[in-house]
Each structure stands twice: as C-alpha cells, then as structure tokens.
Amino acid sequence: MSNFESQGGVQAQTAKVPGAEWPETLISVQDLNQARQRISGACLRTPVLSVPNPSTGDALWVKAEALQRTGSFKLRGVANAIAALDSSESTKGVITYSAGNHGRALAFAARRAGIPATVVMPETASMLKVRQTKSEGATVLLLPPDEIVTHTEHLSAERGMTFIPPFDDAQVIAGQGTIGLELLEQVEGLDVVLVPVGGGGLAAGVATAIKKHRPSAKVIVVEPELAGDLAESFAVGRRVAWTREQTRRTIADGLRSPMVGDLPWEHIKFLVDDVVTVSDDSIVSAMRWLAEHAKIIVEPSGAVATAAVLQHSQKLPAGTTVTVATGGNIDLETFVSIVGT
C-alpha cells in the first residue's frame, strides 16, 4: 500500500489550471498539432465507446486504444519520434527497451520507415508480446529485468543506434497527447479524463492537450496500488522511486516503472488534478466489465483507468467522464485465466 493509500485514498488536490505562464520545459499545442500530422498515416483515430456508468447509469466514455494498430497507444509516441528523426539519426537504426507494447510499436513504425530496430526486453515479458515484436521485424534481445536499461544504453552508444525512450521524451509525449486532441473532438462537454500511468508519457501528453484546450476539465491519473510511486510522489510533491521488486507485484505489467520520467513529472505536477490508485482485484473486474459492456478485450494495464470508476465511483468528480483503455495485447487463454469464465 502506498503512502497515498494509507492517507485515505483519493485526496483533494488544488486544481492545476494553466495560467499565462506555461513552463518552457513542457510541450506546446504546436508540438501536439505537429505530432498529429506526422502520425496520421501510421496511427488510427480510435473510437470512443459509450457504455453505462456502473455507478450512475449515465454514459461513461471509453477511448479504445486497444484497437490501435499494434494493439496499444504506444504507437502514437513512437511514430512521432521516428518521423522527427533526421537521416543521420535513422541510418544506424533505432533501439529501445520495453516490456512489450512500446517495443512492438517501435518495430512497426521502424519497419514502415525502412529503419532497422532493436528491442531489449525482460526475460519475464509476455511471450505473446515477444512474438509480436519479432513479427514486426525487430531484433529482440531478452535479458534479466534489471539489465535491460543499461544494456540498451550500452548498445546505443556502441553501435550508434538512436534510442527512442518509452516515455521520457518530448516527441513521445507529444505523440501520446494526440489522444487528448481526439477526445476533445469526440466527447462533447468533457469534464473528467482518467488516464493510466507507468512512466508518465501518456499522462503528460493527454494532460497537455486537455488543459490547453479545456482547462476546466479534470485530468486524473490512475495507477496500480502495488506500483503506486506516482501517488506517493504527488502527495509529497517530489518524485519518489519504488523498487522493481515492489512494482513487479502488480498484474499490470505495462505499468511497473519504478518511477515516472523526469519530463513526464514536470508535466504531471503542473497539469494533473489528482492521482488515484486501484487494487489488482479492481483491475481484473475492469477487464471483465469492459469485455461484457464495451465489447473490447484489454490487458491488465489497459483496464486500470476504468478500474478507478469501479473502485472510486463515489469519490471521483461528477460530469462527463472518459477512461483511456490503453492496450489489448493479451492472448485469449491468458485473458480467460485472469478474469475467469
């Protein structure tokens, strides 16, 4: 249990509404619009599904990024980052580390651009995600989880490959932020956006888009309570790192980052209204609920935002609410073993 949870769960925070002073370190509307143009050929404009809110009966909107090409939102950030490379950066190929979705997205976008890709993955990664990444044409290296970051950095320096970070990068953040631009067009009168967080790139990008165009809307970030480093960071006002042994406990394997990235944190502390943690039991319930009501299959990480509606319905702000279902890269056998029949 994080410090945040031990202090009472959902805590009231001062609303983060951008004023005239927008920090120069944050991405801009121009960055978001440029990203949208760059990724238009590679990425889908995913649908927003209307389902009955299990608490109020009103419409709950679900942004179905699980239906994105490569099965997750990660393609947006990667496609933007690769499109921004110059010829010298792309000549020797690109490299990253990933538990799965970011790596598969990199492999897909690099293949489209004619660039070789290498993905360093933990030995504990889902075999489905490993196969999917290889099928996109990437070279996949499997290492112990504690070695993937340093080995990626080593290979990047040794071979001159361009490193595309999973989340701590302005181009990646801007690409993920295109989800927020789409939401503003797809959901009229948007009041509350629930976004899952691991490394923070998605939360940073979506928060930027929402707060720039609709500052009255609340952006609430959701993470597993078993990987609640951001909730603790948000409560104390500085980044707090959890150990990988702690974050590995959650079923949501895509959200096991021990700490949000530096650049995402700069966005989150300025723009995000609140951080909510959810139990693994709630995540499983949300997976089942999305399958039954929204008719989409999501992996555990993809159900985290919706889990907040199930677990914290009475504490969340009222109004037109959207959850982002971020990914669906899970085989049916594993899905059934998690949610039951």
TrEMBL record:
Chain ranges passing through the membrane:
none
Which BP terms in the Gene Ontology apply to this protein?
A: D-serine biosynthetic process
Which E.C. number(s) belong to this protein?
4.3.1.19
Tryptophan synthase beta chain-like PALP domain: which residues? 40-327
- What top-level branch of life does the organism fall under? Bacteria
Entry keyword NAD? no
Per the record, a Pfam family? PALP
Instruction: Name the SUPFAM superfamilies for this protein.
Output: Tryptophan synthase beta subunit-like PLP-dependent enzymes (SSF53686)
Name any one GO molecular function: pyridoxal phosphate binding
Required co-factor? pyridoxal 5'-phosphate; Mn(2+); Ca(2+); Mg(2+)
UniProt keyword list: Lyase, Magnesium, Pyridoxal phosphate
The answer to whether the entry has keyword Cell inner membrane is no
Q: Which reaction does it catalyse?
A: L-threonine = 2-oxobutanoate + NH4(+)
User: Which PANTHER family does the entry mention?
Assistant: SERINE / THREONINE RACEMASE FAMILY MEMBER, SERINE RACEMASE
Give the family from UniProt. Answer: Belongs to the serine/threonine dehydratase family.
Provide the function of this protein: Catalyzes the anaerobic formation of alpha-ketobutyrate and ammonia from threonine in a two-step reaction. The first step involved a dehydration of threonine and a production of enamine intermediates (aminocrotonate), which tautomerizes to its imine form (iminobutyrate). Both intermediates are unstable and short-lived. The second step is the nonenzymatic hydrolysis of the enamine/imine intermediates to form 2-ketobutyrate and free ammonia. In the low water environment of the cell, the second step is accelerated by RidA.
This chain belongs to the protein called: threonine ammonia-lyase
